[in-house]
Amino acid sequence: MKVYVMSQYLFNDFCITNKFDDTNIENNKNAAFISIIGSKDNDDSSHFFKKDHLNVLNLEFDDVLQDGVLFEHKYKAISSDQAGQIVAFIEANNDKDFYVHCSAGISRSGAIGTFISEYYGYELVASGLHPNIEVLSKLRRASIFKEWFNLI
Length: 152
Hints:
The chain has helices spanning 8-17, 80-92, 108-120, 133-151; strands at residues 2-7, 31-37, 56-60, 68-70, 73-75, 97-102, 123-125. By secondary structure, the protein is α/β, with parallel strands linked by helices. The strands form 2 sheets. A 5-stranded parallel sheet has the order 3-2-6-1-7. Strands 4-5 form a two-stranded antiparallel sheet.
């Protein structure tokens, strides 16, 4: 299995080229999609898929280490709940290739791609990654606590 990390532009182009949309994406039994946009970009036109599906997870958080305000805009870091959603989504789609994007395809999606590669043994298909350490740390914690609770 492979995890592909890409920019939003390449992700949208990939979906258009393959004629994926909200009406047919669940028919694709071989692929799962994680779409990450920033809180400034959060409107109906930002995610390629307008809703979540069994194989699509849409998330909104920024490429920051903690919540904050800069120039009157509130930036949101990944939450523990979102990290748990991502881990649950990966496990529900563990038999598929993953296509993960954020704006540039470097940091937020890079962290998720790195996590999938490390914890699930997927081949990572990407270049120039610089994983967001907060995203990667929260995913690792979510995975550990999930396993811990499953053992009790």
